[in-house]
Amino acid sequence: MALERTLSIIKPDAVAKNVIGQIYTRFENAGLKIVAAKFVQLTQAEAEGFYAVHKERPFFKDLVKFMISGPVMIQALEGENAVLKNRELMGATNPKDAAPGTIRADFAESIDANAVHGSDSLENAAIEIKYFFG
Ligand code: UDP
């Protein structure tokens, strides 16, 4: 087992639903420690830069618009196998496909307003943590 860090974002829909605390409790109960955090309103440039890998995808414009529609809570999580553990807590991208008890199954409305972001690999985690926390 490896001690890892991953980047998590509680997206505007979940912030608006007032479930930051409930999501943090899930991280903590899974043994993931919050080692950095900030509550921010992303600018369009920041959201576009963060999702640059998706810029050719048809949903890119709407995704950026959604991510700047309200404040987000951004955190770095640390723990054993943190990248995969966080992805398991999140559930599938589309909440309709997300396993019962996952964050997206419980708090997300749709594939675009899907409550949370989590790095999908250790390599991307390092890039994403640097992007928001330097
Ligand atoms: N997304 C979307 N429509 C789609 C696919 C993705 O709006 O058809 C958004 C959604 O918010 C998702 C994000 O783009 O979380 C990044 O997509 P990815 O496939 O990387 O999913 P994730 O890693 O977030 O599960």
Automatic annotation (TrEMBL):
Keywords: ATP-binding, Cytoplasm, Kinase, Magnesium, Metal-binding, Nucleotide metabolism, Nucleotide-binding, Phosphoprotein, Transferase. Residues 3-134 form the Nucleoside diphosphate kinase-like domain. It comes from the Bacteria. InterPro entries: NDK-like_dom (IPR034907), NDK-like_dom_sf (IPR036850), Nucleoside_diP_kinase (IPR001564), Nucleoside_diP_kinase_AS (IPR023005). Its cofactor is Mg(2+). GO terms for cellular component: cytoplasm. Its EC number is 2.7.4.6. GO terms for molecular function: ATP binding; metal ion binding; nucleoside diphosphate kinase activity. Its main location: cytoplasm. The active site is at 117 (pros-phosphohistidine intermediate). Pfam families: NDK. SMART domains: NDK. It catalyses: a 2'-deoxyribonucleoside 5'-diphosphate + ATP = a 2'-deoxyribonucleoside 5'-triphosphate + ADP; a ribonucleoside 5'-diphosphate + ATP = a ribonucleoside 5'-triphosphate + ADP. It is an enzyme of class 2 (transferase). It is found in: Cytoplasm. Transmembrane segments: none annotated. ATP binds at residues 11, 59, 87, 93, 104, 114. GO terms for biological process: CTP biosynthetic process; GTP biosynthetic process; UTP biosynthetic process. Major role in the synthesis of nucleoside triphosphates other than ATP. The ATP gamma phosphate is transferred to the NDP beta phosphate via a ping-pong mechanism, using a phosphorylated active-site intermediate. Belongs to the NDK family. NCBIfam families: PRK00668.1 (NF001908). Homotetramer. This is Nucleoside diphosphate kinase. It comes from Methylophilus rhizosphaerae.
